[in-house]
Structures are given as structure tokens and as C-alpha cells.
């Protein structure tokens, strides 16, 4: 069969399909095929559990603690780390065909397809398997994590004997403390994760079972429950049992050729730091009752309706590059999965698709992911920011520990406490607090959500503003300096006056002051005095933004442009990513950039640069940026598009969008890169669409690369849903629902209404294309099947 | 008795005496009372082993390895640490008086004196102890580690019943794997050190025994052997036994009132990374045979002769401050003990007096300790530099690993491999390689040791010169920059163009080039080409030395003077040392200095500054230097004296000299601070004597503070031993042995001969005294019993 020859993802506009069986590819497909609602995440493992890359069942916010070891400790070093826990696995459904276990490593899979459907919101599988002795069955499965019933997942499992009557035995499990491999070198971290859950309660009866566990050290409690619906002609025997770490429903039945065994497995998960065993048990049993009541078809229908609405709001159409079209929808789908039902929990760097980064959330969320959510499903953006707000006490404690005022948000965390064990790239990266403020301002501009502003937003802005004035100082010449901090680029650290950080801090201070100016009552509530606001404004006005007049370029940080050049010609391409082959000390002291830093400032603080500065800065940093970070390509796409290098922007957009599908960084097995997925949106909407949101108004500067015929995307702003459609010559704007909006198109203000308005795209001559370090240019994008 | 009232050190010119028994003070007195010859070190524990602070028997270079843990690891991080091992303890001699063990915690010590004699080179004890039931004995002991027989230590032990005939039982032990407390937080380090020695061989016969052990992981092998001579009237019964970790000679005898039991215990130690069990056993048994042959009196006589010669060469006399006189001799004595017989092993930061700093050697050795040895016992300086030379391969490997050429010496090590687990204050402190070169140049200037130059010195200079040209670069304006490194001050890190580092590197490059110019053959042997030397000279000539014209001050590193001031007024004095109460990030980004850095440059590279610059720089840095490091006071004394603040210099000299006797840093229990002890010499000789050795010639600029009547010190230079004697008005120079020398006195060249030449001291008006951070001025020195 032809499928047996082609193994890999197939290009299609609304789904991600993998043809054929490839054990070695399981780890990476498991991440891509993960289903999640932001609360529960299930990696795309096969139902029979093996072969597998990494099992993975995650609950947002559920983690174990462990000591952080230091050979040389220091004041303020975090003493405890947090790591996401692989919780009780409810995905497992094993099958015995006569006396032979279904295992894709044995016998032969003559057909094997897996499909993640972006509109249905399910992962489906269709396998025809011939056992080692030649018995053939078709196994069809479909699974979902419900967007509408937050605690619920469900699996439809169907087996059909193809040639003979067959005895089938199915074992449907809840399995805790699955053995997993760990990458960690630290024996204590490995020990903490080897068997993280302590059984507290188990119960099984009829077709349902529940297990309750608690982590050893973080003290979090979780429950998992399952129930089943069995459809088969007759003669079924079942047995259910439960012990500490396993609950199992065993189903035995003789199925005639052409007959079918169909099982629906309903799963419910819940966890709490405070609730008792009976309470968390009750929680999951209630959820299960709801799921049973809704039924499989009901869950499917709810899922579809939820997704219809999402795509209606948020779809991006790309004509001229079907693979890119697929990748962008894949990205949007996973961003939705990560953020939809997070609800005041962290939105982790990998979402709930894998154990990478220990399950921690970073600044990526606010800077890359939240813009997508803000203009697509703003409630999800709000919830993510509420999580930050819920951690304010920890951020204030951290600031106090560091000798600062206000709030210092962590570089990496699950529960809000700093978990970074390397301060030059963690604690010193204070920009995370400005990034959070920026996300708050963006959300407030996009929604006018007064309640959020009063309950969360203002306080976040005030406390971060307080951080900045305590972190910086006025120098002899009256300039406000922020010394000894680390910007976004992880190949530099602990430098003075990082342009990105200073500009973002300036904006933070400015908006905090603006809110005080507009809302006396809020200022009073948070005890912001006149002197304090005056100081915020003074610091913002005096903020130092270093610039090299000689070169006509902004240094990433003070002194950067004096540093030695990296010898790219002499750097073997096998030595990338550089951090695995060169010491930090060498990377930090040379002009080599891991990821957009000054270029990110060109995007997010573009109103602080002239077009000429942007062009020169972009060209300068292009030549020294190696893109060893998955965060970079999307931003480079955005700025390349702005300065008119549209081919290059297209290449970067494709790299960002395909990061995980092409496994560019060779680590997708640990989970998807949410920020890269967001980069697909950024590259399209902020890149070719030219979307900017400086000063509370949306502006566009659309331009397409010659390879693309048309891009259309939809945004939600202040309750108005509108579409932007771009072709080679013009852009057409119209409101889908809601009030008219004032926008700008290439600098010209206009009002968009339900009536499409078509505006021409002015020509641009960007001059010669910038160069990249030897061997580090993005792949030239040649659209397939365009 | 009056002694019972006064507990503490008594001031005396040639000894350190502690009166009375104070269990709580044992830990610190054990360090001060340590006896050592640079190869073997015995802490000053009581013979009966308990009560004790820390037992401690050390062999220079003998260490155990352990993993270095990192919560976040990075390329080039050292994976293995090294820690000095407490080896088999041969100091132990226990006493049973009738049925009561001698234990100073029970019964009563009516007399108890311990004396470290600087001229005899022994630690003596005189105790009258009354047992809980009132039996009185006098116990007199004396111990030495032989300067002349490197592998040998010996103890004379005497018991005298004072009131009655008494049965005495003495147990003389070799005890391996003594239980010790460890400060480490890391369970793996603690485990490695809990029981580090694996017994390989034991043997006992007659009065002698030997134990051979190997470390578990570093694979080093050591042997300890003991033999005894017993003097007692008659009726003595002895028994000897040995097992893996213990060998014991038991001596039982009835001693009449007025009689005496006298035991001489000879100890021998040896270790090897390569030799077999029989070989190391043979080595210690041979040493023991030599010691027995010499006998106790012979060992005492050799020790005395060795010390007579040392004091003849190296004594410093101070009139007007007896405590300072004692402290300076204490310092010289311990520096001798640390360096005398190191012989191609590291000279550790604590010498062999305690387990502090894990027994590692640092740059302190070359910068602070070796100048003392160079002008006192130059062979010891040579041996210490030979150790560095013996680690060149490891330093070259490290440089290669870091992407550099030449040799990068470790920040901390026992065997030459980098053990620093915190790179910003370890690897980045490249100045250590310049410090080593500087010590080489100083030694060569002082001795003209051509053989050392050919076998070690030139290669050390060349390989470090290669490091500098690969570490720095020429910038757009042709200046040679060394970016991203850490200077001496540990409250700054990873900065550009540290003045100290750049000046020391410049000197390193200059002298490397000079040697090539003078010795074609050597240049050829080490493959130094003309282009390479030209590059060294070019880099030296173009070396960037930042200077702030506005302030008229040198920044410690580029940008330093722009940084925020530390709020000293708001810093509680309990918060010192600051590193225990403030994060590195905050210390690094502010103008707060832990220890002399730019001020050390003013001393060591004084020929690169004008007198006016020195005065301004010193005043500027005085105001921000908190002296949280024991390395600082000596250097501040030197520069304070040079710029004319003689009272301040006197205060700093006293602080340096008394660091350990007064336990200024509250950690002398872990060992003495060799660099502070060296600071006592520096403050006297380079401070009030004004000794400098720029350019191969010794110059002096003597000046006394009003509190001191006279200082005299002796130096050895190019084989000539000469004395400098300073009083309030003049300095008198004369040669003791050797040829005349050309020196300078306050800028005037003169020739010193056997005929004393007396030269007047010019007046100086230093202007107002500089200030120190609030609460951090040195204590005002008021000499006692002057």
C-alpha cells in the first residue's frame, strides 16, 4: 500500500495526518498529537501505551518540588525547584486478540493513520493490524479533551475482526507512577520524579473507578476517574479492580467477523492544594457524571461548536503555500488548546504537550502567546494574566528578597515562585516584569475590560513600575539607567542599559502613571502617591537608550558594539546551538546573538525608532543572530517584513510556523514550542499584516511576499470582530460583527465598517537583503503544491 | 591562679601562648597552633583528641574527588570537585589515670598553657589536671613537624603523678576516617568525605605500626606510620595492634609520685598517585627509621637551626607595638610552615591549617604569599611556581575547552584542574594567569634563576601571553580590549576592561616578549615566532586602560563609575559580609567593592599611575570598599602608606596582621588566612618600607606612622641579604651578606653595601584622610604596652 511507503505528515488544510507506523517518530508525533484544553493535557501516545516515546498526562499547575543543588550557593538562590508531574494515565486501553497483545512492533500494521482534526478537536486513529499469527483487526480510536467540560476527556475505542470470529480482551486502565525516562543529571530530581505520587484512595465498581494520589513534597492532591460505555452484540464479561496505582476494567468478549466491540471511556481529572480526599474524589465523580450525561456524541458536538466559534474568530487563510496554511492552523489550534481553559493557572512554555522546561512558564507566554489570545480569545489572555496576578505576593516577596520594591516576577515557575537556578539568565532577566505589564496594557487596550483593570491590571502595572524605579537609578547626568540586567538574548547577560529592557520599562512606567492619572480611586486603593507617580514619569522621561552615533546603530546593551565579533566562518555548523559547545563567558562577551533582542524592541517598541534606524539596526543584528532559540524566527519575520525584506520575512515565518512539525530544534519530543507556534501568528499578522498596537490603536502596514497570493486573518478588538484580507496590491478590511473601528493602513487612518474598504499597498525599496551568520540563514522557502 | 582568669593569647615577641582552658576557643586555637612544614600539617588539637574543634591531619596535594552538582549545567562547567582529606591522625595520645580518662571537660585543669614557639618550631603544652576524683598529674607535650625531614612529625609526651603513685595507661593511635562535621549542604560532597579512606594494609609490631589507605575516587594512596620510644623507670607493659582504620600502642605502667612516664612518638607520612602499597609503606618506614636515628633531641636541634636561618633572613622587627610585633612574626612563621617544604605541590589558601576553601589554592598564593617567600626563602617560591608549571597541561586543556589559546589557570584547585562551580567568579577571573606570570617575573628578578627560567618560567610566561592575545581583541579604534572578565573584586563580575587585569596582562605580554628578545634559543624551543611576539607587543602597547576624565578617577572596569552607589548608610552592620545578605546581581551592578582591585593595581602596577592619580583613586575606592575579604586590608595598608595616610596604613596593617589572632572574619576555625598573614609582611615591607619591584630593581619609600618607633626588615635579593631599618626621620640600609646592590630610596638611586647608609625621609602632606563606608573603617589601632 502506498501509505506504507510514505511516513510522515500529510499536507491538508484542516488536519494533521500521519501516515504509516514509525516507532522512532513516536516521541515527536506524541507532542504534535497532544490534545488538551489548557487544564488537562494528554500526549498523543497509542492507546495500548507501548511502543511509546514519553507517556504524558498533565494537569495544569500540578507539580512536584525538589531541592535545587548548588556546588557554590549564593544569597537569594531559589532552594526549591518545581517539575511538572506525569499524573495518572487514563489514556491506556490495551487489547488482546485471542492470545496476542496488540503491539505495533510485532505483527504488521497494514494500515495506520493518525489524524488531529482542527475543526473536530479530536485525535483519531485507524489501524489495520495483522497479528504475528495473521489474525487481522481494525482498531479505530478517537479521543478528545473537552473544551466545554474542563475536567473531562473521552476516548472512543472500536475493534472489528476482519477475517475471523475473534476473542477480544480489552483492559482499560488508570495507571499512576508510570515508569518514565528522565533527562536530568541530578539524582535528586530524578528521584523526586521516579514515583512522585502516593496513593491515598482507590475504588472500583461496575464500569467505573477512581484513584486519588498526593505528591510527596509539594503536597498537591489529584484524582482521576474513569467510566465506560460498552457497545457490543452480546456475551461480554467484565471485571473491575483497583489498587493504589492501578485501576483496570477488563472486558472479554467473542466478536464475530464483521462485528464490532465499541467502548467509550470517559475520564475526569481534578486536583487541589487544599481539598480533602473525599472532596477531590467527589469533584471527578461529578465531572464524570456530567460527561456520561452528555455522552460521546454530545461531547463531540460541543467540541465542534466551540471550535467553529474559534475559527470564525481567529482563522488565518494563506493562499499559495498549503503547508504553511496547515502549519498556521496547527499553531492556532495548539495555542487554543494551551490557553482555552487554563483559568488562573500558568500557561507553560510547552503548554501541556510534554515535560520540556520542567513544565515551567516563562516570559514567552506574555510576549508571544498572549498577543494571539488577546486578539482571538481575549478571555484566555485575561485568565493567563490573572494567574500572574495571583502570584503577586510571591513576586513581591522575591523583590523584597532581592532588595527591591514592587514585584519581581520569576524567570521560570509553575506556582509563581522563582525556580531559575542560574541567576545571570534568570533573576537578572527583569524584563519579564515589563513583558507582563505590556501584556496587561495590550489586553486592556484590546478589551477595555474595566473590571480586570480594577482587580488585577492596575496592581500589576503599579507593582512593576515600583520595581523599575527601585532597580534603576539616575546617573550624574540625570539619565535613568538600568544596570546589570539580562535582556531577551540569552547569549548576553548582566549588561547595562539593555535597549529592550529600558524601552519596555519606560512603557511600563508610562502606563502605570497614566492609570493613576485616569483613576484617582485606584491610585488611592494601591497607595500610589503623587510623588511616586512623579518619579515614575521622571524615570520614564529620563530613560537611557544607548545609541552609537558612529555606526548609526543601537547597541543591544551598553558596550555591546565594542565587543569582539564572533568568528562565524570558523564555527562548524555542528557546533550549533552554540551554548552546547562554547562557554557562557565567551558567548556573553562577543557580538553573537541567540535570539531577537534589539530586534524584538524594533517590533514591540517600534514607536521609539525611526524607519531608517529600524532598517540599519535590523541589518546589523541579522548578521550576528544565530537563532539558536525557537523564540527568534517569528520576531525576525515581523521586522523583516516591516523593513521590506519580504522574501526573508517569508522564510522566517515558515521557520517559526514549521518549528515543531519539522522538528527544527530536534527536541519536539519534550513538547511543542508554544512561542514558535505564536510566531506563526506574529509573522503573519504582525509581519505581513503589519499589525501594531502602540498607544491603544491598531495599525496595519500589509505587504505580501511574491510567493503568497492572499492572506486573510481575523481579529477581535474592543468587541468588534473584523477581517483583514491582503493580496499583492491591496488590503481589504471589513467588520464581521460589532461597531466600526478606527484603524490605520500604512500610516493613514480610516474607519472600518461592515462595508469592505480596499486600500492600496504602497511600494517599498528595502535595499540589499541583509546577511546572516555563515550557514545560519533561514531555509529558502519554496512552497509545495502552491 | 591568675592564669585561670585570663584566657586568651598572651603578647610575647617570639611565641604564641594561650593561657587557660577554653573548650569553645579550641577550634580557632587549633588553626593558630597548627604545625606544618608545607608537606604535612597537624592542627593544634589536644593529644587526647577530645574535646576538639576539628581534627585535622593534612598531606599537601592529597584530596578526594566528588561530583559538582548543577541545577542548570553549562558547557565547560567543571564536573568534578576536589576536597582536602583529613588523613590518618597520628597526633592522638590518650591517657587513663587509674580508671579516669584525661578529658579537659571533666575534672579540673588548674594549669593549662599552650605555646607555639617561633624559634623552636614546636607546639608545647603544660597541663596540670586534677581528675574528677582528685588525682593530679602534670602532662607536658611538645610536637613538631620537621622542616628538615619532610615526611616526619614527632611528639614528646610526658606524664608526672603529682600527689600519689598512679597507674597510667597511654594509648597512642593512628586513626583513619575520624568522624568529622562538614559544613557542606551537598549530600554527595558530605558522603565523599564521611569516610574517604579505604584500608589497604595494616601492620603492627613491637612499638611501631603502619596503615595504608586509598581514597575511593581520586585513587590516591597514603601511608602513615608510627614508632615510639618509652622512657620510664620500670614495669612497663605494652601491647600493639592494628586493624583497617586503627593502629594502637597501649602502654601500661605504675608510676610513683615524682616519677615520670615519657614517650616519644615518631610519625611518618607519605602519599602517591602511582606507587604501590609496598612502595608507600616502605617510604614511611624509611622516614621513620631516619627520624628514630635522629632522635627527638636531634629533630629539635635541626628544627632550631632551620629556624635560626629563617629568622636571620626574614625577621621583621617592630618597635612600639608588641602585639603587632608578635602578629607579624606569627605570620612569618606560618608562611614558612606553609611554604617551606611544599615542593611542587599547591600552596593552599589555608596552608595545611584547616579544611577551609576545600584545601584549594587560589591566586592569593602568587599575589600575596609568594612575594614574601621570594624575598625570604626564594626556593619555596620557586617550588610553588614549579607546581603551577606542573599543571600547565591541565591549564592548556582548560584554555582549549574555553576556546582560547595558551594556558588558563584554574580559579581554585588542588591538582591543577578547575574546581570552581560558579564561573562568573571563577573561570571569568582570568587575572589568575597574569598573577602567576607576575610571580614568575618577580622571582626571576629577585634570583636570576636561569635554570628555572629555562625549565619553567619562560613557558609559563609564553603560555599566559598566548592566553591574553586570544582572550582580548583590537577594537575599531585599535585599542586592545579584554571584555567580560572578573577582576580581583568579588563584588563585581564579568565586566569589560578591568584596569587591574588589563595592566597585569600588559605586563605579562611585555615580559614574555622581553624573554624572547633575550633568548633566541628558548623562543625556538617553545615555538614562539616573530609574528607572535609582535602581536604580544602590539597588544601590550594598545592595551585599553579606561579613565574617567570628568572624575579624574580610574573605573575599576569600564562603566563602573556610572553604576549606582551602594547605600551604605542604610546597610545594617549585621548585614556584612554583604554577599550573605544581598544577591550577586545587586552587588555586581553597584559601586561597592569587596576587596582591593583598582587599589591592588595601584600597588602592583604603580608605575602606570601618577602620584596624583594614586591619591585620587585611593580616596575614591576607600569610600566604597567594604573589606568583606581578608585579602584587602594588606593592600589598602600598602597604598595608604604610599599616598601618605600613615595612620590609616597602620590601622590596615594591624587588621591584616591580626586577622586570624583576632578572628576578624569569624572563620579561623577552618584554617588561617595565608594571604592576610602575607598582608602583614606587605603592609610592613611594601607599606611602611615602600618596597616596589617594578622593572627588576628594588625601590623603597619608607615612612613610619607616629605610633611606631622603628621597623627593621631583612630581604634577600639576587643572593644578597640586606636590612632596612626605619625610624621617624630616616632609613638605614646595609648588606648583611653578599654583594652590594643598587636600590632607590624615595626616588634616589643609591648603592647599599655592608657599610650602613642612612638616608632622610622626606615629608609628605597627604591632604585630608579618605573616608570608608559607614561602619567599615578599620579599627583605630592603639598599641598595647607600647
Automatic annotation (TrEMBL), chains A, B:
Keywords (A to Z) from UniProt: Glycosidase, Hydrolase
TM region(s), chain numbering: none
Glycoside hydrolase family 65 C-terminal domain span: 691-752
Active site: 490 (proton donor)
Entry's Gene Ontology molecular function annotations: carbohydrate binding; glycosyltransferase activity; hydrolase activity, hydrolyzing O-glycosyl compounds
Domain Glycoside hydrolase family 65 central catalytic: 329-682
Annotated Gene3D superfamilies: 1.50.10.10, Glycoside hydrolase, family 65, N-terminal domain, Maltose phosphorylase, domain 3
UniProt cross-references to Pfam families, sorted A to Z: Glyco_hydro_65C, Glyco_hydro_65m, Glyco_hydro_65N
Annotated segments matching region Disordered: 761-786
Domain Glycoside hydrolase family 65 N-terminal: 18-272
Domain of life: Bacteria
GO biological process: carbohydrate metabolic process
Positions annotated to bind substrate: 363-364, 594-595
Family according to the record: Belongs to the glycosyl hydrolase 65 family.
Listed name of the protein: Kojibiose phosphorylase
Source species of the chain: Amycolatopsis keratiniphila
Lineage of the species this protein comes from: Bacteria, Bacillati, Actinomycetota, Actinomycetes, Pseudonocardiales
